[in-house]
Amino acid sequence: MKLDVIKMDGSAAGSVELSDEVFGQEPRRDILFRVVRWQRNKAQAGTHKVKTRSEVSYSTKKIVRQKGSGGARHGSRKAPIFRKGGVYKGPTPRSHAHDLTKKVRKMGLAHALSAKAQAGKLVVVDAATLDGGKTASLAKQVKDLGWKRALVIDGATVNEDFAQAARNLATVDVLPSMGANVMDILKRDTLVLTKAGVEALEARLK
Predict the structure, then answer these.
(1) pTM higher than 0.85 for the full model?
(2) Which domains does the chain have, with CATH numbers?
(3) Please, which pLDDT band fits residue 9 given cuts at 50, 70 and 90?
């Protein structure tokens, strides 16, 4: 697959040959779903907690006498059936993460990249650089290029000035190639790869 390369000012900068193994796959919704669910579950804090019968603060005095009251034989106000009593089998802190094979994770990333390429929402730039790190300058460039909610993936490292300028733009996110992930790619309207980013992703997924 051949794609035109542009500079950040919109001018042409040649073309690049994209690997069909990485950018020419037929996207599978089931694979993308599995990888996104794995990411979201891994990121979930799992700090939900309720107090059990042994943790609530209440008197331990027996409520009524054992016989003769005409009611049930209750022994504690901490029982789950009473107001302010403990919760039975409620949530406790735990990890929601689950395993997903490396093969499926790699496949999911390749399918996410292929989905953007098929939809015509993949842009390759010569380099993601900016002089001075001014947010206003980058905002003007992004507006002129027509990018809405763009994710920029660079090579092994990200240009510091470019990252600093993008930090205050809600519509632009910047990641190094090792930070590329399925959920971030699918969430953004436009995926922008540098030439270094293309090489790094192809080396990672082949």
Answers:
(1) no
(2) 2-45+97-205 (3.40.1370.10), 50-90 (no CATH)
(3) confident
